[in-house]
Batch of 4 targets.
Target 1
Amino acid sequence: MPKVETFNRTNVLQKATEVFHKKGYNGTSMQDLVDATDLNRSSIYNSFGSKLGIFMEVLAFYQQGANQNFGKGLAEAYNATDAIEAIFKLTLNDIIGDDDRKGCLIVNCKSEMANQDHTIKSFIEKNQDRMIAMLEDIVSKGQMEKIFNTDQNPNQYALYLYTSIQGLRMTGILNKNEEDLQNIIKTVLKVLY
Amino acid sequence: MPKVETFNRTNVLQKATEVFHKKGYNGTSMQDLVDATDLNRSSIYNSFGSKLGIFMEVLAFYQQGANQNFGKGLAEAYNATDAIEAIFKLTLNDIIGDDDRKGCLIVNCKSEMANQDHTIKSFIEKNQDRMIAMLEDIVSKGQMEKIFNTDQNPNQYALYLYTSIQGLRMTGILNKNEEDLQNIIKTVLKVLY
DNA sequence: GTGTTAATGAAATGATCGTTCCAAAATTAA
DNA sequence: TTAATTTTGGAACGATCATTTCATTAACAC
């Protein structure tokens, strides 16, 4: 019956993610998206509804990529130490690997929009819940394995680690020295032992 | 000779700061500033040059206010423990006291613009240098007083603390629970002892 | 008071904003 | 091949963007 969507949706989201990541939500125009995706204006609106619509899909796309990375890292971890170090190592690699020093799209989005748009706010709350659940799980296992201390409960340590990751992403925007960043991570994790 | 500037510059910067803080740089329009400051468009351009011009002054104004707060807190500190706790306590109060949960203007600005505008980037680098110098000084004294350990040198600890403060500001945007935030701070500082 | 100078008010600048509209092109079921 | 359906291309929408222009108003030195 109908003509089918011809473009590669993943590819388009990839391109759109790059633009939003580099320029932020308010700094990105529809024209920027048209240029980056090689899609027509109408096609964007037809497929994503609005600027906020495509941005929400971009956020989900970005989050999915990060989750996959974490998943792989955790799969190779033999104990809680490996696991938590994998999380921070992947974050560090993401920081070091980005020559533009854009920071984390989700952290940036939180800073730009969480206090203004309810849809964004609740997306990020869910993202936070997932991150904290993951960290809590690692801490919990580490405490059962007697590798981590029990000075704080897993949820408290998870919120601490989540906070540290956000701080790391912010610092990574201006500090290019890998050794410095590794040192911060070392200090952050020391309290667990 | 000339008619003199009639408006209260501090008052105008105060109002402009509120707007930029709430909506971000790209989210704020010149019309927003006209409405908030009760100044005429021409007067804004006449006195501040451009949107980026007034924003730079807003950043300096905001930074100055924060510095004064830190200064007062540090003046009352008898030792390094008091000092570092004052810094985090003031940060916590700033987070808790803001019902809009806007986060820190400078952290937000870093996330939005540091990778795009060179003037902004260098402002924030200087701000970071000052913050780290202040923290380094506290750590240094604490180590001399034998209150803090010497596992890391003052500069390394300072960067760690700076990173933690940024993380705290990000977490504070969505987490309203003061107890949780205090707990994070406790965990952050534990590594020093 | 007069002359000088700069701040002000209000309108207008061209560019760009996000979004819509509609005819044309393209795809599939029949 | 035809009919049905939806994507596409491109122009256009009104609104808003940051900035400029200029006549008017107000303050100071003399």
Note: Chain A has nine helices and no strands.
Target 2
Amino acid sequence: MGTADGDSTPVGTRKRAARPRQGASMADVARLAGVSSQTVSRVSNGFPGVTEETRQQVMAAMRELGYRPNSAARALKRGEFRTLGVITFSLSTMGNIRTLEAIATSAAQQGYAVTLLPVAVPTQDEVNGAFSRLGELAVDAVIVIMEIHLLDAATVSLPPGVQVVVADSDAGDRYTVVDTDQVGGARDAVRHLLALGHDTVWHLAGPEDSFAAQRRAHAWRTTLTEAGRNPPPLVRGDWSAESGYRAGLRLADEQDCTAVFAANDQMALGLLRALHERGRKVPDDVSVVGFDDIAEAASFLPPLTTIHQDFAEVGRLCVEGVLSKIRRPEHDAPTGQGTTLVPTRLVLRDSTAPPPSHR
Amino acid sequence: MGTADGDSTPVGTRKRAARPRQGASMADVARLAGVSSQTVSRVSNGFPGVTEETRQQVMAAMRELGYRPNSAARALKRGEFRTLGVITFSLSTMGNIRTLEAIATSAAQQGYAVTLLPVAVPTQDEVNGAFSRLGELAVDAVIVIMEIHLLDAATVSLPPGVQVVVADSDAGDRYTVVDTDQVGGARDAVRHLLALGHDTVWHLAGPEDSFAAQRRAHAWRTTLTEAGRNPPPLVRGDWSAESGYRAGLRLADEQDCTAVFAANDQMALGLLRALHERGRKVPDDVSVVGFDDIAEAASFLPPLTTIHQDFAEVGRLCVEGVLSKIRRPEHDAPTGQGTTLVPTRLVLRDSTAPPPSHR
DNA sequence: CCAGGGCATGTTTACGTAAACATTGCGAGC
DNA sequence: GCTCGCAATGTTTACGTAAACATGCCCTGG
């Protein structure tokens, strides 16, 4: 070296022209402030051992250059991204959205960002794709909001060393799971209707391939049987209000149907419409209980009695769970397991009443 | 050096024990496959100039070690994160959610991940906080889904060099904005009701501090005036079904009110309930038009005529806009501006009919 | 009055990757 | 038969940060 003329400054500027990269680096700030880059680092991270005067100088230099730390370099050095990945299906269901929101909020409080991995179509291929993309993603851990059966075959491609918590699913034997207490909620709904004097309770279930729907339906059946009642035939919907409407048209013709437990509020909404159209009054002729307690449920016609889910708590626990996994290096050996249940709450409104025979 | 005994292998393992870092690095793969790390890099990125045989060996080594590329190092080297940041308020409104979903999907198609920056409370402080956190975030560009007035004072802390697209707002003079054609939608709603024969149209508006609400209200007033009608007093809600209900109780007492344009579907839902309770039939006595076309709107009592918003398109355009900004280095000089409007569509259902006087 | 102990700051190095440049080896053309 | 050229692979280096270690200085205590 030394043959060419330039030797001190041009190095930093030569190639920089080709790529007008976003910002100033620590070295730039250090140069302007007349300190070493390490001092800039200390200021940037709020470490002690820096004079107030020096700190001010560095801060001024940062402002002048519009310095923002390069998080790639930071992550590379620290070995963590401070980011959580969330894999979810299209955000079509209110529950997923509310859970996601709670996750994002909790994560932010812990200084973590949340990266979304949407899976457009819930096919096995898509899920696998998401998981392999995840492999290259800058995340420290993953929260999956997804029915477990779609997760199964994807397990293989789950990179080792990536901690996972699953929400809204079962399979607590293989993953750490956080979920609403589906069984308790369904039981409360059915018992409430029985306590009002109804002989039995019909069930408008969610789609067959949903474990949440399965568990609600199962708890409905069990609760009835335990109470010595005969479970009527199960009516199947697909979570949508439209499917609730179609089911409702059928239920309206069942003259001995005085109480319906709908597996979610949307289907309950459609059900209410169908019953109204067929002239069956709610709650005078038929009582209806929903599940979820979406914001609009209080404004249905009539306001819907429903099972409140605490999505915020589910989200919070997901974050807590996944972070504790990260922080304990090898505390829980394989993947960690166990299910944490979040309790539900029966919200009484105007869609339930004693059956006609009791008045 | 050379004084201590170990010199070749222990280097890689010594400190590693303290931090059981997640995975194997390129060097590890290279060692196992008996090639250089550069060759591993070539395989990893699908570059040419590698024998099929070598490629297979490397792939095998990758699988064996469970290698996943370190995206921090990759981002550091490449100078980009392939990630978009999305700043949004609590995901309470359906519109934001659907937009976010579309953004995530579009971004994924372009090979970009999406990082969520939730702002819990829409105060100026919180927004500023989000923007400064954003400064340290691993994102190449930002999409803001937010009312613009909250963005104003935050501008200062927006790091230079970070491209921004704003959805669901105005201020196309300062930012690149993608938004639903609020004016066109509101006009269509009002004109539809006038065409049915109503003398005038009442408006159940959204909160005062929402520009979307403002524009819908303004367009409502303008359309009425242009048609030579007298705009009735404006009724104010807050987007919630509950506020729609309260407003509806008041509107039900206005005997000359035969047509209402609600600024969103949730408020329309509450309105329907209030009108029903007061014995005013929809659409026979009062016609109602909503805005948004949420999934449940078709299941309201009666099914709601409403203005459909194409949130998917809004999201798609946001991603497209922000990516084109990134890719054109300094094509659009300052911040870029201009508003892209996404058209709406009137969806006819059963909540509108000619006024009683016409039958 | 000088040694020793902090404290403020500087220097070196490594994180994992990929661009740029360097080096092999082998086949074709003269 | 020898060289030129290209294809396959290896080596060096830099990206921006922060831990670990090194330095210099001032102040205190014997």
Note: The longest helix of chain A spans residues 311-327.
Target 3
Amino acid sequence: MIEDKSTEQRIIEAAKQVFIEKGYDGARMQEIADLAGINKAMLHYYFRSKDKLFFTIFDDIFSRFMPAVQKGFTSNMSVEEKIKFFINSYITLLQSNPYIPLFILHELSRNPEELKTHIHDKVTSNFKIFQEQMQLEINQGLIKPIDFRQIVTNIIALCVFPFVARPLLQEVFSSDNESFDKFIEARKTIVPDLILNWIKM
Amino acid sequence: MIEDKSTEQRIIEAAKQVFIEKGYDGARMQEIADLAGINKAMLHYYFRSKDKLFFTIFDDIFSRFMPAVQKGFTSNMSVEEKIKFFINSYITLLQSNPYIPLFILHELSRNPEELKTHIHDKVTSNFKIFQEQMQLEINQGLIKPIDFRQIVTNIIALCVFPFVARPLLQEVFSSDNESFDKFIEARKTIVPDLILNWIKM
DNA sequence: AAAAATATTAACTATTTGGTTAAATCATAT
DNA sequence: ATATGATTTAACCAAATAGTTAATATTTTT
């Protein structure tokens, strides 16, 4: 049970845990209340409905997670340095938050229309700068002329996928948790290798 | 509503549709019955419980989907040819079944212990042959000595991720369905490029 | 200290949901 | 034709679940 902190904060933390683990449909208000150590009526006192609580939690998770991902892109490094830096910090972030991507992807696919409005303003801006910088280096002949979207997608895919597919991969490769963690750690050098080898002239 | 075919087959098809779209927790027996055009009691007459129906559907989906993925690996092509062939047919398969991967990944993460037993025998075998062949080509100095698991993971990641992250990617890249389909189509050459460029000596 | 506002609880409600039952219908074999 | 077994239906049930209410306790304001 979550102790100390304000009731509202305890509800939010409990709700995050339960929603991330079970998803919206699998989450139970009673379980959230129990985890927060309060009465179920308190959830409605503070958040009115399961829907309202969920959107609060989703927005909170999403707006904490996406900027953390994108912020590396505003520094004054070269494209190559940025990619290396990004992949390393992104995988590190995922190591501490392994269940967030699948949660976001699943909820987004369950209810795309409604959730799109929740994410719209949080995703577009940060990539622009990086896109322009890449175009510059392409013009200079430093990197190959590849569709920007494909590069971003590949980087994210290679970072995120092992976390969303962990149970399947562990089963396929018969690996225990320890060796899987090593497998992930190794990707901090493998993924930049793969990407840079591909885009560099 | 699904017509013709035996009742059992109609239930299975309806259940597939609903479970894939909504997930186990979001699926309703009534919705499956309606879609199959039958009484709700029939679901229980044929499958006893939601759990039993779900496992039937899951096993069916999983055992149709995984072998289709792996079978390309038993031919007598070179590693390079196999990779090209695999990526192409895998992405094509995903274009016709775009929602299956997220369904499998979500259910596997919701209930890993129980579902692991359902998939165990269906995943391990087919990769072995490919792994040995790769080791051979590594020894011959044709391809770089890279952890086999990393190669497989990267290939699958690059194929699957755009499908599981589609709503997010479309939002980030502001792309309509048509341009997203083109984006996917382009990956049939981009992904082999990326992988082969990386592993070839 | 009294009043007012805020927070908390226990008990309750309405609805949804997976599952059951018993009767009716249909198909098949004798 | 008729008895037998399989299939289908409508009505029902019990448990679970989101949400409510009204009374009580606590904190804050005056």
Note: Residues 1-48 of chain B form a domain with the Arc Repressor Mutant, subunit A fold (CATH 1.10.10.60).
Target 4
Amino acid sequence: MPDNPQNTDRPKGAIRQENERIILSAAEDVFSEEGFRGASVGMIAERAGVPKPNVYYYFGSKEELYKRVLEDICAAWLDSAGEFDDAADPKAALTAYVSAKMDLARARPKGSRVWATEMTRGAEHLSAYLRDAVDPWVKAREATLMRWINAGKMAAVDPRAYIFMIWATTQHYADFEAQITHLNGGKPLSDSDFAAKKASVIAMVLAAAGL
Amino acid sequence: MPDNPQNTDRPKGAIRQENERIILSAAEDVFSEEGFRGASVGMIAERAGVPKPNVYYYFGSKEELYKRVLEDICAAWLDSAGEFDDAADPKAALTAYVSAKMDLARARPKGSRVWATEMTRGAEHLSAYLRDAVDPWVKAREATLMRWINAGKMAAVDPRAYIFMIWATTQHYADFEAQITHLNGGKPLSDSDFAAKKASVIAMVLAAAGL
DNA sequence: AGCAATCCTGACCGATGTGTCACTTTTCTG
DNA sequence: CAGAAAAGTGACACATCGGTCAGGATTGCT
């Protein structure tokens, strides 16, 4: 095996692409359960069905693998964040955003949990992203919410507290999936159960802002 | 040192009580950051300022220590749960409950994060507690909310989704403290900042239920 | 087919983790 | 004060971890 610490500079072949995908998926699983420090590369390799040195072949280190997983999650977060279109009216914009967030929670619960575990460790690996992407996004939406409030289009809420409520409530369905399942007689929410909860969340979030 | 696997059967002395308190507190810190598997007894011992074998002297194993930490957190959870008094009217009862939950999030953020990390691992260590304490509590409060809804005292919401919203929104201030701090210019919320957010959360949760 | 590049993997290394234990020191009690 | 109980702790055994590497196998290209 050639000495090449810059694994990411290698040309992409079909095998590489497939194996990276498999390993990243397994890593997301294991990191979501045990966090960065609690997850072992051995567990990830086993989950992915590859030998452990292969994980190092494709990713230079546990940390590099973790960063790649986080990047992917951040991209998904940004995707849903784009649904908060501030040219629309409050009800339409918030409905779309909460809807997208609920869909993301449903489609990517483990990603959400990786994000959550990184938060509990102080979010060191997310600090640049929070500063460069999340913070500006929050400030822009605060401004939008204030504009709507001042135009009398929605009730006067603390914009930031409102945004936190949206995040918390939607991500709860991913992050606390185990609790929700336990409280649902040990069964995960079915698609129709989830759709009903989604509708309820949208309604409540809108009502919280007088919409 | 005598061979006594039943450490918890020993009479409690002042030194023991103090050292257990210190170790439990340190354990809560470390478990909240790295979760069960990622936390090491060595880290906990260092955080507590005691030699590692002393941690084993007072607690039989890492797992026993973890269970003790969780028990303490569950007791706090039950404390705040008692504030949801179903003899009161909806507004008073919900205000009291959300207030208590916000206070708990503020006073015990690390406990909340231990709870959250145990959730991300599937909540195995909490399954009995969820079944025996949380599930009955949720069912009783669902019934209460339905009674209020049917009496026309509050808007028709999905009771369970509403309870999840309360949990999510209040615990968010603990679980995502790192994010909130990052988004607050790197400074933790001051007491007055937090009080304002608390008031906003209470208002929004009430509004979500038409109160 | 030959060769280069890529991929795979058993064995290995030093570091770190859980837990133990013999022994020492300190505290408590009669 | 003496002895028992409680508390403290350096050293240790074994397991697991992050990461490495030589060499074999497979793939891709001319």
Note: Chain B has two domains: 7-60, 70-208.
